[in-house]
Design a protein that fits this description.
Number of domains: 2
CATH superfamily of the largest domain: Vaccinia Virus protein VP39
CATH class of the largest domain: Alpha Beta
Strand order of the largest sheet: 11-10-9-8-16-15-14-13-12
Oligomer: single chain
Shape: elongated
Helix content: 25-40%
Number of helices: 6
Number of strands: 16
Strand content: 25-35%
Length: 317
Amino acid sequence: MSSDTPSHVAHRRHVLLALASVTFGSHGLAQAQQSGSAAASSPYEPRRGQPGKDVIWIPTPDVPVLRMLRLAHVTPQDYVIDLGSGDGKIVLAAAREGTRAHGVEYNPEMVELSKRRAQEAGLQERATFEKADIFEMDFARATVITMYLLPELNLRLRPKILSLKPGTRVVSHDFRMGDWKPEETSSMGSSSVHLWIVPANVGGKWQLRWSGQTPIELTMDQTFQQFKGKAVFDKMETTLRETQLRGDAVQFAFTDARGVLRQFNGKVSDDRIEGTVEGVGAGARAQPFTAQRMGEAPAINGATTSRLDEVQTLGDQ
């Protein structure tokens, strides 16, 4: 039989409760510390819709990523630069196909995440990343530019993109570049992918020559990859037709003084065009031609400034 009085029993219960409180409190504190430590040591993972320097982060779905690479005809000989590379998805996809690719991202945590994923995939030799501002860096080395940016950012980048080497391919997920019309657009449900090819500058006055023909003056006016012009000879002028410009490859035609339709196919290299000219129906074989620009090359229309109404209609793109 116990000799404890009710007061002694009550006192002991208070002591046990106090000890239990300390024990469980300490356990809870330990759990909180462990949880905090685990959170601090867990790898960074981005959140869909998280804010960035210029845009919120929305990952590009797998199907548009692959289509971007296909539309640009990316090969192992290319060098891809992804502007605003986020979690590195596009860069890693290009690297998996044997292409060297470089991601430019302003968020340092995203850059480290991308590097970690490249390392884990064994792609760190072909997939590289750096923290940089896309508006300040030099991406002239690229043969392919990829991007998933807002239309107004694309418009800000447009002058710099148009100054790249002719033939550079540019692909954008969803958003366009104002009045610069894409060469091709692919649609996949609610997503779209647009392709542009940086054109050579063919604007200005040229002196055109080929064997057996006196020099002809050409005048060409260029807006993005479109151009129009005229040829001057024998006290007359005629408009150019069948004009096409894709990268550094140029085509045009006109009817000469004898009534022969002359078709020209050439390559632009700075202030010189070289290629072949054929006389349709003239029974003559193709022969070489050259054209030399006279004076300074004018800026491509649209390459330096954007019209106010162009900026205002960006929301429709």
